[in-house]
Specification:
The chain has two domains: 10-41; 55-81 and 116-219, no CATH class. The chain has helices spanning 9-36, 38-41, 55-61, 66-69, 84-91, 102-110, 130-135, 140-144, 161-169, 194-205, 210-213, 216-219. The radius of gyration is 25 Å and the shape is globular. It has 221 residues and is mainly α. Helix content is 45%, strand content 0%. The protein binds heme C (HEC) (5 copies). Residues 49, 53, 55, 58-59, 64, 66, 68-70, 81-82, 116, 118-121, 140, 144, 147, 153, 182, 184 line the site of one heme C.
């Protein structure tokens, strides 16, 4: 019968044990970092777009309101992306020959919508609705950040379950008058603490129930 444990077996076993331990430790560290890394939260991510549309220019520079382009945001679940003719209300007059706008002109001529690549999204099994948030005075900036400073749209917030829940369990400090939801630089109240007082009043007035807002079937229907 051959010898099972050779002289070198002990060393080899130790080496294997060491590699396994390092693997488990490293794996744990990988998962820990992975969960909160920008790879999973996607914060700061941008997409290539058919046209280099800049919110910094159009919102920050020209001061166009969100609702001019995202027309459905107050009335439906989806904010919607603007149809080409909205771009052309201006771009049939200005920058008419710009090469960057060629896809826009083609889209109008061929009646095919521009195919924007989506940046801000949740998985299909999550139910989301814009109008509910907008009508309760949850501002765009809470969820999409300072888009007026973004040359290319990027993901600003994690859009993970915990992030939704943090606000749902205590929405008061995040609320403002619904007619101010699209103002990204609205700071009027930050100084005088009116924010929290107003928020608490609105939670009462709108009948918002934070206890009810973290039940699973609110977002998973
Ligand atoms: C209310 C008028 C208006 C509308 C609507 C509008 N634009 Fe513009 N756009 C401008 C002006 C003015 C400029 C020049 C900005 C500058 O250089 O400061 C511009 C510049 C651009 C540029 C050049 C690059 C840049 O950002 O400077 C692109 C590309 C562009 N627009 C795409 C679009 C698209 C796509 C739409 C539709 C979703 C659109 N625009 C809607 C007024 C408008
Ligand atoms: C002149 C038109 C215009 C205005 C005004 C405008 N947007 Fe947009 N928005 C677009 C276009 C076109 C896209 C698609 C291209 C892109 O992602 O940049 C877009 C994309 C977005 C997206 C990413 C959607 C996705 O999932 O890909 C968000 C979020 C957004 N806009 C928020 C806002 C907010 C908030 C405001 C107001 C503060 C605003 N936009 C004002 C035209 C506009
Ligand atoms: C409470 C958080 C929240 C607020 C407030 C909010 N959004 Fe969104 N927005 C989201 C989420 C989540 C998505 C992804 C929805 C999906 O994938 O179905 C999204 C997607 C979008 C999109 C992509 C197209 C669409 O309809 O899915 C646009 C454009 C957009 N938001 C614009 C706006 C504008 C403009 C405002 C303010 C008037 C606003 N959002 C306010 C969370 C928010
Ligand atoms: C900054 C605060 C805030 C964030 C972030 C937020 N919400 Fe909300 N959400 C609210 C408020 C306020 C209401 C209104 C509650 C009411 O009217 O009773 C609401 C209501 C809802 C409702 C409707 C509840 C009902 O009674 O039918 C859904 C669905 C919802 N949110 C999903 C989401 C999802 C999914 C996310 C994350 C992607 C999210 N919300 C992030 C504040 C927030
Ligand atoms: C306020 C909205 C909201 C509520 C309430 C909510 N979820 Fe979620 N849930 C989400 C979002 C958003 C995601 C997507 C997370 C992502 O893409 O990373 C998600 C993802 C999940 C997933 C997929 C795995 C994961 O963690 O990414 C499971 C399972 C889940 N939720 C279970 C639940 C259960 C069980 C409850 C009730 C205790 C619940 N959710 C309540 C918003 C919500």
């Amino acid at each position: 019968m051959p010898q099972i444990f050779t002289a070198s077996a002990d060393t080899r076993l130790r080496a294997i044990a060491l590699i396994l331990a390092a693997g488990i430790l490293g794996g744990g560290m990988f998962i820990g970092g992975y969960m909160n890394s920008t790879y999973t939260t996607r914060i700061g991510w941008v997409q290539n777009q058919p046209v280099p549309f800049s919110h910094e220019h159009h919102v920050g520079g020209l001061g166009i309101d969100c609702r001019y382009c995202h027309t459905a945001v107050e009335t439906s679940a989806r904010a919607g992306l603007p149809p080409t003719h909205i771009c052309m209300t201006c771009h049939s007059q200005i920058w008419t020959g710009a090469p960057a706008l060629e896809p826009v002109r083609q889209s109008l001529a061929s009646d095919k919508p521009l195919e924007w690549n989506r940046v801000a999204r949740v998985p299909d099994y999550v139910f989301f609705n814009h109008s509910i948030h907008i009508n309760r005075g949850v501002p765009c900036v809470e969820c999409h950040g300072r888009v007026d400073q973004m040359p290319l749209m990027m993901q600003a917030k994690p859009f993970q379950m915990q992030w939704c829940l943090d606000c749902h369990r205590d929405p008061a400090p995040h609320l403002r008058p619904p007619d101010q939801v699209t103002r990204l630089d609205w700071t009027q109240w930050e100084a005088d603490k009116d924010h929290e007082v107003y928020g608490k009043l609105m939670v009462k007035a709108f009948g918002i129930e934070p206890k009810h807002l973290d039940s699973c079937n609110i977002c998973h229907r």
